[in-house]
Design brief:
By secondary structure, this protein is α+β, with helices and mostly antiparallel strands. Helix content is 33%, strand content 25%.
RNA sequence: GCUGCUGUAGCUCAGUGGUAGAGCGCGUCAUUGGUAAUGACGAGGCCGGGAGUUCGACUCUCCCCAGCAGCACCA
């Protein structure tokens, strides 16, 4: 007999070999039906897998959403692979895990047919529904490595065979059958599990195959290219629909689409990955920049401006040229030869030309500013800020609208401080970042990215650097679930651990923006020092930090977060005065002038168009306030205000409207 | 960078081996209207770039470039 302890503290004694499903049945028929899997001593396991020792057991039902989703998605992936092989025998299967919103499976089409495409998805979906409807039991079996390899080799499954041969020794190798093992139509995959009890536990209406894409065997570019079939999978149709709706919403908010519609910016291939900001888009930038200047000035930073181009020798010394040269833009330091009559397609570069490189980051330049003159411990902390324009030669395939660009401007700063000041500085930064994100209405998670495998610096330095960041977050009161506090092993930069701020936007997506990193490597490499109390030279710690990350990306996030409807203080045009008939033109001009004098970004729309048309246009342009004026308003000295997102209008005297708009147009940090 | 798809008017897109079309936008004219599209007429295109096949290529083939999706990358 073995002893099973349940979550409510009760326990029962059962025969060894009893399954969680049987225990569920003993507790009640309702639970037996609802139970999807079991948590055994904290580990999720199949509900049909026999128990062999004393354990703590908790049954997982669809109420345990995270676990249930993970199980269902993993099962969908298996059903997907089974369906593909049923439809096209000879297809090789590889891996198929759950993802954040569904699942995928990497497969290789047989030679007899072309790689899978979107056109194949409906047939695969149909077959998957059949498999689900058949309610095939999912049965776990342990196999020997030799049997497994033979099985895969016999089946022509080269990828699986390769993987089976490399699975670590000592791990039990398991397969899952879909259908009674060996029976007609039974299918199997090598898998660690766990799985649901049968395919029928899945909802045939709660998944959808979404796309196909190329992926490499084991994620390595050198390996064979497979076809990855993606699906989104949920526990029920309602969840699926909600998710599909979110995707539609995200497509509507796409900053690239809105950027064009709202005339904010454009990209063109003569300057790929670099943004052409139009007047309206740059107005958002200017407001953000002014805001951030006020914030940083108020927090004791000093703003500087450093060179775009520096001698490659400088980048060699900082270590960037050795490690990141392939992502840097370099230019020869030479006068081009213009003698030639030919058009200078490719200027000749002399063999002995010196090379300069455009900065991919601001830190080395900031160290050089810090190093000017002699710094005393009394001068520290030194906080140097820069709206630093950087260039990184990102791979073509990585570029994406404003989110991933080659030229970007960071709200960058470096804090040079003593060892004793690190925690205080990091804590102050946590508070500063918090106030900024709150001003934009974002919630966020704070994460600590710990030392990566490849890194500079001693273990003691890393221990210390990680602990400092932890302590600072604790002191700021953010090391808890409210702030999504989490530590991410192996995710840090090669020179420092980093705190990361992940914003959650209006439709639930997350974006990593802010960061602070405690760096002891660069001050060493560039020989930065200060004179301590003892009269000796000491290394400052260098904190790299940013709150927006980059203006480009942050504006992209804001556009998507607000779906283009920027809060009034950021809106490029805050109000439009629109006339109903031309007899109100004069009055509209007066109203416009008054609003301008009050500092409101206003335009007058005197076009010979119907008011319906004007309302529609300015609503689509997402102008926060529309001030409609006709004969009545002109006579009474009023305006009829229609606010974006509301249906009706309010008639009020011009002065009142100005006061209201002025208030709304005040940046959040200047209120009260 | 890799794989796949796409590239036609300012925008969104249709189209055919015989040098192109729609809607919106733009211009002109008429219309002066009360809160999400007034009507008529008109002007816009080297059909991404290069090479090839062909009597003839926007259309077929190849190469290049860019965009999109995914992968890889993201100091």
């Amino acid at each position: 007999m073995i002893k099973i302890t349940l979550p409510d503290g009760s326990s029962r004694d059962v025969e060894s070999g009893t399954t969680p499903a049987q225990i569920a049945a003993e507790i009640g028929p309702g639970l037996a039906k609802a139970a999807l899997a079991a948590r055994i001593d904290g580990e999720v396991r199949d509900i049909m897998r026999p128990l062999e020792a004393d354990t703590e057991l908790a049954l997982i039902t669809s109420r345990d959403e995270a676990d249930a989703l993970e199980l269902a998605r993993h099962d969908y992936a298996h059903v997907l692979a089974e369906a593909v092989q049923a439809l096209w025998p000879g297809t090789q299967i590889t891996f198929g895990p759950a993802t954040d919103d569904g699942f995928y499976y990497d497969v290789m089409a047989p030679e007899s047919r072309a790689p899978f495409s979107m056109d194949d998805l409906p047939a695969i979906e149909e077959k998957m529904r059949e498999i689900i409807s058949a309610d095939k039991p999912l049965i776990r079996e342990a196999w020997s490595r030799a049997d497994l390899i033979k099985r895969w080799q016999d089946g022509g499954e080269a990828f699986k065979a390769e993987w089976a041969a490399e699975l670590p020794d000592g791990e039990e190798l398991t397969v899952y059958w879909s259908g009674e093992p060996g029976s007609d139509g039974a299918w199997m995959d090598m898998c660690r599990g766990p799985h649901l009890a049968s395919t029928g536990k899945l909802d045939p209406k709660a998944f959808k195959l979404t796309r196909v894409a190329g992926a490499y065997w084991r994620g390595d570019q050198k390996n064979a290219q497979l076809t990855r079939i993606y699906g989104t999978g949920w526990l029920n149709k309602k969840q699926l629909n909600a998710h599909l709706h979110m995707l539609e919403e995200a497509a509507k908010r796409d900053h690239r689409k809105l950027g064009q519609e709202m005339d904010l910016f454009h990209l063109q291939h003569e300057a790929q990955g670099s943004v052409f900001w139009h007047p309206k888009g740059y107005m958002i930038w200017r407001e953000l920049e002014a805001y951030m200047r006020r914030k940083m000035d108020g927090a004791g930073y000093n703003e500087i401006k450093t060179p775009q181009l520096m001698d490659v020798r400088q980048w060699t010394q900082s270590g960037h040229w050795g490690k990141y040269a392939e992502n840097m833009f370099a230019v020869p330091d030479m006068v081009p030869d213009v003698e030639s009559e030919e058009e200078a397609v490719a200027p000749k570069v002399a063999d002995d030309a010196d090379w300069m490189a455009i900065k991919p980051m601001n830190c080395p330049a900031h160290v050089l500013v810090f190093k000017q003159g002699i710094k005393s411990y009394r001068d520290l902390p030194v906080r140097l800020g820069e709206m630093g324009c950087c260039h990184r030669n990102e791979p073509h395939g990585a570029l994406h609208g404003l989110m991933r660009v080659r030229q970007f401007t960071q709200d960058d700063a470096h804090i040079f401080c003593t060892e004793d000041q690190v925690v205080d500085e990091v804590r102050a930064f946590c508070r500063l970042a918090d106030s900024v994100y709150q001003d934009f209405g974002f919630t966020y998670h704070v994460k600590l990215a710990l030392r990566p495998e490849q890194r500079f610096g001693s273990e003691e330095d890393w221990d210390k650097a990680e602990q400092e960041l932890r302590d600072a977050v604790a002191e700021a009161g953010m090391d808890n679930d409210d702030y999504g506090w989490e530590e991410l092993p192996g995710e840090g930069a090669f020179y420092a651990p980093k705190l990361e701020w992940h914003l959650t936007d209006a439709i639930g997506r997350t974006w990593q923006v802010g960061t602070i990193q405690g760096d002891r490597v660069l001050p060493e490499r560039l020989d930065a020092s200060y004179v301590g109390e003892d009269g000796g030279r000491h290394r400052p710690v260098m904190l790299h930090r940013a709150i927006f990350g980059s203006y480009e990306r942050f504006i992209g996030i804001l556009i998507e977060h607000f779906a283009g409807r920027m809060p009034c203080w950021l809106a490029p045009v805050q109000a439009v005065v629109a006339t109903i008939t031309s007899e109100a033109d004069g009055y509209a001009g007066e109203v416009e002038a008054k609003l301008k004098a009050a500092g409101i970004r206003v335009e007058a729309d005197l076009r010979n168009e119907k008011i319906n048309f004007k309302v529609r246009e300015h609503s689509l342009a997402k102008v926060p306030h529309l001030l409609v004026v006709g004969g009545r308003e002109a006579e009474e000295g009023t305006v009829a205000i229609r606010t974006l997102g509301s249906q009706g209008q309010r008639i009020m005297p011009v002065e009142e409207a100005i006061a209201m708009l002025k208030d709304e147009a005040t940046p959040p940090d200047l209120r009260n």
